[in-house]
Amino acid sequence: MTAAELEAGVSPEPDVSELNIFSDNGSQSVVSQLLDHINSHEKSSQRRGGFSERFLRWRRRYLPVGGDNRRDHGSLKLSGPLVSGAAYCISSCSMILMNKVVLSTYNFNAGISLMLYQNLISCLVVALLKFSGVVSVEKINWKLIRVWLPVNVIFVGMLISGMYSLKYINVAMVTILKNATNIITAIGELYMFRKRQNNKVWAAMFMMIISAISGGITDLTFNAVGYTWQTANCFLTASYSLTLRRVMDKAKQSTKSGSLNEVSMVLLNNLLSLPFGITLIVLLGEWRYVISTDVTKDAMFWVVATASGFLGLAISFTSMWFLHQTGPTTYSLVGSLNKVPISLSGLVLFNVPLSLPNLFSILFGLFAGVVFARAKMS
User: Of 4, 23, 170, 362, whose CA is between 20 and 30 Å from 287?
Assistant: First the structure.
């Protein structure tokens, strides 16, 4: 996934067409004549060449040529990362909290069905955007499906385990325990890709282990089932990341264009997860619960569930948008900082019983996540 870094300045050499924005035709004529006269003697005299450069610098600094446009352009470049970063943080926080509401507040005991519904919404929205010409999607073929299938199996397992862990564990502890994913991924990179981490990264990961253990011990709402699901989620999330790196190049070779953009990957993941979800719902008998439970007759439940589906898709797009506006390092750091409002919001909104040692473990885990991101940047 390519990332374009933020460019703070403006182009050092403005185009001659910038002269067209003058409102005074006389001023335009004078400046044009001066530039033509200077440029005609620029090659024959080093002294005049130097004067030409000084004059151009003076013109860019004091004359109102493109000044308004340049300021607007600069403000757009500065506001782009801020807007995309805010959109990413809001959608990420909202998605986790919304899933917690659906699974816990409404006491909905069908995580696979919720995943299926959310993925279906994502497929429909991407298809609508494709037919509207807003986004381009790579054509899916059987060769690409066979290559992508292992990634999708892990993807489905990652979503399901994440759903059930949220049902049994409070949001703050889920966020802290997710730090274990970074540790598993780093170990996997060491053995699979021979990628070694620096001492700062290993120190940060040791801090994450301490925070996770102390958080679990001091958790007043400890639930063994929830912690089991979250442990599985950490392994599956790390496996998804590592497997995706291996499959990515092979998947691109399986397409006609030789490329696979992010939108196509979002559609591929969500589309292939539908038959898996339907099969699991039938085999586990979850469909009986869905059609018989009273919560599915509540209109507000469907509003919240639908909103969670749109938010899931929003995370995919806003994360790509933010990554392209900034870069991987900034994206990683903001992702770590984003855990702070998620954790605190989860504690406040769901009235989680909390002790001082548990609060300290959560804050220590959040700090460890930020240290990890900073260490990866160094």
Answer: 170
CA distance 47 to 333: 50
* Residue 5 reports pLDDT greater than 60: no
Give the pLDDT confidence score for residue 199 in this predicted structure: 86
User: CB count, 10 Å around CB of 137?
Assistant: 18
Token pair of 21, please? 């924005």
- Calculate ∠ Cα 19-21-23, nearest 5°: 110
Q: Which tens digit of pLDDT belongs to each residue from 119-173?
A: 999 999 999 999 998 888 888 888 899 999 998 999 999 999 999 999 899 988 9
Q: How confident is the model at residue 215 (pLDDT cuts 50, 70, 90)?
A: confident
| Nearest alpha carbon to residue 86 among 337, 263, 367 | 337
The pLDDT tens digits of the residues spanning 260-285 come to 887 888 888 899 999 999 999 999 99
Q: For the chain, how many helices (H) and strands (E)? A: 15, 0
Q: What's the Cα-to-Cα distance from 238 to each of 14, 62, 154, 268, rounded to whole Å?
A: 47, 55, 10, 19
Cβ atoms of 44 and 115 within 8 Å: the answer is no
SS3 106: coil
In angstroms, the Cα distances linking 123 to 109, 116, 244, 268, 294 are: 24, 11, 20, 9, 27
Residues 6+ apart with CB under 8 A from 208: 179, 180, 182, 183, 365, 368, 369, 372
pLDDT at 77 (0 to 100): 53
Question: 178: closest CA among 231, 223, 219?
Answer: 231
